Amino acid sequence: MSKVLALSYGRKMSNTDVMLKEVLLKCQEAGHEIKFLRPDDMDIRPCTGCTACVVGIMCGRNNGACIHKDDFHILEDAFYEADAIIVGSPVYETSPTGTFKTFCDRIGPSHDLAFLTEAKKERMAQGKSGSELPDERVFKPRIGCLLGVGGARTENWTIMTIPVMYECMMSTGVDVIDTHVYYGAMNVEHVLGVPEQMQRMDEMAQNIIDALAADSRDERMKWRGKEEGACPVCHQSMFKVHQGSSRVECSICGIDGTVEFEDGKPVYRFSQEEQARSRMRYAGKLEHRNEIANGAMTQKKVEGLKELKEKYLHVGE
Questions:
Q1: Is the pTM for the entire model greater than 0.85?
Q2: d(Cα 11, Cα 237) in Å, to the nearest integer?
Q3: Can you give the chain as a three-state secondary structure string?
Q4: 68, exposed or middle or buried, with CB in 10 Å at 0-12, 13-18, 19+?
Q5: How many Cα atoms sit within 13 Å of 235 on the Cβ side?
Q6: pLDDT digits over 198-227, tens only?
């Protein structure tokens, strides 16, 4: 039996809540333990960008402790205990909600798989053990699904939703196996009046069930979604196009590829080396961890900074 967690950023018993609960019910019927949380009902404070969590990990002082003493530990424990995580959010102005983004900001650096893996290696080499090491649950493989619910009748008003939602899976190393956006929700009073959308949730649930039953990590983490994008890693199609060249960059994975036209159709190609350094894979996370360790952690000091700031202290107040 595995544990399946759903996090809803929607209104209570509205579309997002009910769609996530449909997934949970099917997983429960398959014998899995389920948990449903609404972070908006908790005291989750915004990240201040103080970097205390990252500094604490890298300097060996702690395992990414946050300065805030709020309800985030409830989400953290549920996240760490889960084998599968599905996150759902309404669409506000093409993107998920602001409170969802707060979750991403809080779970990002402080729970980054590469930061914590390297910290474990370093501390073990120093003879440390037990509570001096990161929580062992950090390193458990997990699968994830993402759900967006948009009222707008046109799909392009949901365009940023899934790409932004990947942020909550990125640092923690969750393997996303399915994503879905229900748009046009304003057309019907409630999703319970849209059978095809509820059927899609049943399919997402079955994808989770099948992945959890897989015999190998490769089989477990393979993409199972209906919507197949151009990127071979995240399976989305949001690219930065480099002007004047055939080069494209996946906005989610941060990997470079090329686009060429064959028989009038675009063909996107990403080398195996680039795919391996996606932000969704460990090598990409380690690349970022090393970038922080070798850059921001050794940043050049500005002499007389306090005095230089003084002219800006009360501007516009």
A1: yes
A2: 29
A3: CCEEEEEECCCCCCHHHHHHHHHHHHHHHCCCEEEEECHHHCCCCCCCCCCHHHHHHHCCCCCCCCCCCCCHHHHHHHHHHCCEEEEEEECECCECCHHHHHHHHHHCHHHCHHHHHHHHHHHHHCCCCHHHCCCHHHHCCCEEEEEEECCCCCHHHHCCHHHHHCHHHHCCCCEEEEEEEECCHHHCCCHHHCHHHHHHHHHHHHHHHHHHCCCCHHHHHCCCCCCCCCCCCCCCCCEEECCCCCEEEECCCCCEEEEEEECCEEEEECCHHHHHCCCCCHHHHHHHHHHHHHCHHHCCCCCCHHHHHHHHCCCCC
A4: middle
A5: 16
A6: 999 999 999 999 999 999 989 999 999 998
Rg of the chain (C-alpha set) = 21
Cβ atoms of 260 and 271 closer than 8 Å: no
Tokens (6 digits) for 140:
């458990």
